[in-house]
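Request: Have a read of the protein record below and say how the chain folds.
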Amino acid sequence: MKKNILFIISLFIFFTLLITYFIISINNTRVKFVNEKDNELEISIKYPSFKYRKLNKRIKYIINKYSREIKNTPFDDNYHIYTLYIDYKEYKYKDYISLVFYSELFLGGAHPNHYIDTVIYNTKNNSFININDLINIDKNILIKLSNISREELLRNKVLSNSDVKEMLMDGTSPKTDNFKRLALTDEGIIIFFERYQIAPYYFGDYNILIPYSKLNLNI
């Protein structure tokens, strides 16, 4: 009896420490899961896999960036456990696949850090596009994005508060770095703002949808 109990416990520990991958086919997209847990860290990652090798390589780069950070950070016994959670959303527009990765990384401190990474892939010519490509199409795109995003965000009374407004104005100024997180959808371009970009951490992250017609942009 004791041997059976020890065997069951051993199996439980083994499978808890083992990284498991599950693959599900959804609309020609293979969704993969990575789960890992021990006494010091917990990792739960969901990410897509496609038939496009170049796109998969970029996805793995994003996933590995955060995985390496949590695994290479010396554990501090003052904290219960380090955690990494990654999820994503997928958008499609014409020949483009847009992926938005939401990462939550806790390595001690008052709260976890949250990150947003976006990837836009052209399946027709196997290439990536980003905000710099939009600037090449329209040299005034940053000014347009800045003006429209401010107009949309300031409709929120919380964000229009004088204590937050200065931060919002800086985070939506016409700079490449402020508008590098984006996705192409059938309805328009979605712009993503990380925590701390336009408001304090506890406000969360924000995004706005801008119709292509409002930007006079033909992609």
Summary: The beta strands are 20-26, 29-37, 41-49, 82-93, 96-106, 113-122, 127-128, 182-184, 189-193, 206-210.
